[in-house]
Design goal:
Number of helices of chain B: 27
Number of strands of chain A: 11
Order of helices and strands of chain A: EHEEEHEHEHHEEHEHHEHE
Number of domains of chain B: 4
CATH topology of the largest domain in chain B: Ribosomal Protein S5, domain 2
Radius of gyration of chain A: 19 Å
Structural class of chain A: alpha/beta
Distance between the termini of chain B: 31 Å
Shape of chain B: elongated
Strand content of chain A: 15-25%
CATH architecture of chain A: 3-Layer(aba) Sandwich
Largest interface: A-B, 45 and 48 residues
Oligomer: heterodimer
Strand order of the largest sheet of chain A: 5-2-1-6-7-11-10-8-9
CATH class of chain A: Alpha Beta
Number of helices of chain A: 9
Distance between the termini of chain A: 14 Å
Helix content of chain A: 25-40%
CATH topology of chain A: Rossmann fold
Largest sheet of chain B: 7 strands, mixed
CATH class of the largest domain in chain B: Alpha Beta
Strand order of the largest sheet of chain B: 23-24-22-21-26-29-30
Number of domains of chain A: 1
CATH architecture of the largest domain in chain B: 2-Layer Sandwich
Helix content of chain B: 40-55%
Amino acid sequence: MTGVTNFQRVILGVRHHAPREGLRQAVDIANFLEAELRGLFIKDEELGGLAGLPFVREFRPLEGGWHSIDNTELSDAFDITARSAERLFRDAVKQFSHSCEFEIIRGHSLAKTIASISRPGDVLIISQPSSPAECITLQFRAMVKAAFESPASVLLVPAGVVRERGEIVALAGASDDPCIEVASRIATRAKEKLVVIDGAKIAAALRSLARNENVAESPTRTPAQLLLSSAIADLLNPMRERLLILSRNNFEYSVAESISTIRRVPVLAIEPRSDRSEQ
Amino acid sequence: MRDLSLQESQSAAKVNLSGPGVGVAALDALRLYRAADLSRLAFETTADLQQVDGPVGQSRALSAISFGTGIDKTGFNLFVIGPNGARMQEAVKAVLTKEAAGRPAPNDWIYVNNFSDPDKPMAIELPAGRARGVAQAMHELIDDLKTALPTVFQSENFQTRRSAIDESFQKKQGEAFSVLRDKAAEKSVLIVRTPFGFALAPAENGQIVPPDQFNAWPEERRLAMQRVLEVLEKDLERIMHQIPQWERERRDELRKLTRDTAKFAVDQLIDETKSKFSDLGRILGHIEKVRSDLVENVAMFVAKSDGEESEPVEAKPGSPFDRYQVNVFVTQDGQISAPIVEELHPTLANLIGRIEYVSSRGVLVTNFRLIKAGAIHRANGGYLLLDLRSLLIEPFSWTALKRALRRGDIAIEDVAHFLGLTSTISLQPDPIPVKVKVVLFGERMLYFLLVALDPEMGEHFKVLADFENDFERTPENEELLARLIATLAGREGLRPVHRQAVSLALEFAARLADHAGKLSLTVEQLRDVLNEADYWAKSGNSPVINRDHLRKAIDERIYRASRARDRSLETIVQKVALIDTEGRHVGQVNGLSVLQLGEFSFGRPTRITCQVRPGAGKVVDIEREVELGGPIHSKGVLILSGFLAGRYALDTTMSLFASLVFEQSYGGVEGDSASSAELYALLSALSEVPLRQDLAVTGSVNQHGEVQAIGGVNEKIEGFFDLCKARGLTGTQGVLIPEANVQHLMLRHDVVEECAAGRFAVYPIARIDEGITLLTGIEAGLRGSDGRYPSGSINRRVEDRLRAFARIRKQLEGQSQQVDDGGPT
């Protein structure tokens, strides 16, 4: 099995309303990856079309009312939010030990934008919004899907990370799973304990859980994926991990997202290496 | 002024001058100094004597102190007055210590936080010695909670339950939005995030329909989409409006969880703490308030997240945990009797307490823990000793003390607020009821001034304890004082004092009392001279203090202080200041005065002269004319006028002009102790009979010619003696003193020796006539049945002279009248 274990860039998508704590925690983990950090604000130009659509209005929670959408206002709003995002980024990276920069990119489609900027050796950081409303929006769903379709590794940071110190856990499909090496390196840098959960344990947990008749099925996920997430969550129960690492080859992105949400810890899904040898 | 020889004077008066003095005999040497009599007391040194317990000779004061400390009524505080060096504080403390031993230690006081009004800390009274236990228990409770509470709140159980609440809320929101998303997806609508909110947009294949594409739709389809959007917008709006309520519910649930968790964690520790104070109702009540506050404010115990260091165990003032601590304000921990507190620096803050501040992040903060007790608090239930002078010089202290005594409680006031210098928020702690016996120590003058000027004195200090300056020199009292000397020697760690030295010390005490028949009770001076004598004994490698050591100590004390006296004597000996000690002069006499410089007094002769001429009957006091004479001195001089007017030429007008002056005196003159000398000078001037210059005079005189007692008689005699001795004693020199002062004589040993040898003399004078006879060698004379004084007598001469002045004046007045009338002159 091959996978990238050395990372060149960490790309952090910054929203102007992102929770500061989540940003800080993302930057903390990025520190252990020892790569250049790139903050990114994507100006979604697809939204520009909203102004041309009749009947489409903007609901502003702060003001509590509906407002018509104007292109100029929208553009100005994007500029304001971009600057706000940059301020948040600069604040979050004060303790970052390596080089970093902030960039504003205009993109017509988030998926295409992410596909265009990411490459093997990158880590795309996706911070889960604290608001459930935002989790169901087009942009967030598209971003997650696009990230997991890109050649980059993905670090999912849930809302409300439960702890900042704890074990580094590798969910290994096999003994040569590259996530073990990544986890080991991060554990050394972070001075945390390394725990490896191999596939056999996961399979055993899954079997045990499958025999449990109380597991409900979610209409949005395959029962297998839900069971797998739950089985892994049960395995992790005695632990107090701060970071989970798995290989995208072995787990669907929905499983990674689900485990991150259940355990409220970041999950690093490292991307498969295609034709490059390990370094 | 005419100088007459002794012979001329004698022949004029036809008086037989058969010795240095005529009429009055000189005092026997035995009357010049009363030696101590310790014949009834058998001892070799003070080591053989039983020491005394408490002060001696102070029955009046001790009786007052006993009454004052025993009476338990408001206002009966003590005011102790007496001479410096009486060691009143020591005496009073000894009495109070015995009194206090019979009284139980008063209760403790603590201040605790007032949770409902932190600016008004609460005072709680506790049985004696219990305060520290309460404080320690509360401190341990908080320490335990600092460990227990974070553990509970960081436990998996709490975190899980908290997460469950959060997840439930998130799930509720998530489900609502998921339903909306699915409903929207069914209708081909996407939920989009805009910079400041959300929008619902028509979609195809998972993408927003571009405007041109949408506009190309048939109108019906566009209208249908519009209707769909309107419905979905309402759904979105409804969900968004519901979020704050869900959030409130989440917070309420979290709060309840936190409270229940805190209560569970706190209850056990609180109940354990309460069990230690089941007999202290107010403490139990306070702990319950602590419990409630802990539950409401548990966040401060769990503010630290994982991995961060916790606060130091010892919470400093200003930290949030202060609110649960206890300020041990006053405690009798270890005390088993009533307190005796002496406040040597009675500033307002030291007296009534103060509120301190600490700097925290650049601002000054305070809380109930920074309330500090004052002397009145510490003495509460017991005795407070204060020096009056120290109290009066401190601003507001006297007023504050009276206020506390009147109110029966102490309110701690910030002096800055007192003065209106600041209006920042400060604490207003519960006043503490006070029941204290105040003992003020002061000088007599201060006491009487205060009584005269402060009407509240009588309200608060009803018991006066007046320490005696001295007591009767009876054999019993001499023994007592000898034992006191033994006590002082023992207490000071001195060598034993030999019997002979003890005798000398008693004689020294009589000299300090300025009375042969009294013994001074200024213990401090006795102590000092004994210490010095011990030094001399040590220098001489003597195991005991003998009479010579004590003698040396006394002499050395005088020597150290007598520079001014010696310089003064030098000016006289060198005739810079003119004083005769031989011969005779008309209208000139040696007066005597006492100068006090610091602790040392010495006598100094002064020439007093008088000039007379016919006049309007006025005796002019030149000192008074130039405002160098004080009122008492002026009164003495005016009395001379009364004397003359009452004795001489009663059938004619007083036609005298006389001027009296203290020659070469350029400082102030006060007192009337030289009035007899002034009268002698006046009589000499009028009678034109010279006065002996080998005699000095001291004594006050009244209008009847009676010579009255004066102060400093020993110093005055010694002053003239020193001058005569410096010039060489002639064997005729001496001093005239009031007879009433004989009882005060405790002269220096060299003076006594010379008197015993007949080379110096001291004459007791009761009436002016005795003195003038001695000074002139001529009888004063008694008025006969014919109304006239004997011829040649001093009084006759004076009267004749005054009559002559009256005739001259009449003549002059007659001439003057003629001139006015225009007649011949």
